[in-house]
Design goal:
- The complex is a heterodimer of chains A (131) and B (78).
- Chain A has 3 helices and 5 strands.
- Chain A has 131 residues and is an alpha+beta fold.
- Chain A has one domain.
- In chain A, strands 1-5-4-2-3 form a 5-stranded antiparallel β-sheet.
- In chain A, strand 2 and strand 3 form a beta hairpin.
- Chain A is globular, with a radius of gyration of 17 Å.
- In chain A, 34% of the residues are buried.
- Chain B has one domain.
- Chain B has a 3-stranded antiparallel β-sheet with strand order 1-2-3, with helices on one face.
- In chain B, strand 2 (56-64) and strand 3 (71-77) form a beta hairpin.
- Classes of the chains: A alpha+beta (131), B alpha+beta (78).
- The interface between A and B is large, with 42 and 32 residues.
Amino acid sequence: MSQDLEPVPWGAQDRFQAHYIVKPVGQMVLDELLARTNLTTSGHFATKKVASVEWVGGDLARVLNADDELRNMIVKLSYKDAHIWVEPTKNGVRIHGKWKSSYELQISKELFQVYDRIASHIKRNLGSPPV
Amino acid sequence: MHDSEPDTFPLKSTREQFCELFEKIGINAEPEQIDTDEVEKGDYYSKYFSHSPAMVTNHGCLKIKGTNIDIVQIIQKG
């Protein structure tokens, strides 16, 4: 019996994501709360660093682009952590990064502060006061 | 017999392990019973972005206090 040269991947993979969720108080317009980072980088491979960040998406992207402090915080993150998506779903607005292996799935104080600051803008957009 | 590893070890869920990471950075988090929160019942992705996976596994949620983030959900691909 010969071995299958192209085995079909099956079952859960070693790829994890932590979604940081802000729950809406009332109705929300989903398109307005879409955003993701568009990075400008310098260097290659292991020395690749984030040089600048631009948010693209709905109305929230405009608000996040206006926050210079947030931009400075993201530039200090690693290249992988600087990829951030804001996705509105029916039950909450989700902030998440790239897929990570179980070994890589960590949270640093700096990364959490970035997510918390994005969440404060989302709360303002939803009409509830940030913490 | 002289192995340095203990014979027994406590099994921890992914969300319990993640809770410990939060404690290390000074954030007060507490794991919730799986499949009890509203966010676990709906869609996990907006489907606006092309990277949204077709199948995911829910590993449950953590409740976070004193921050703008209400809840954290751990998701596995596949």
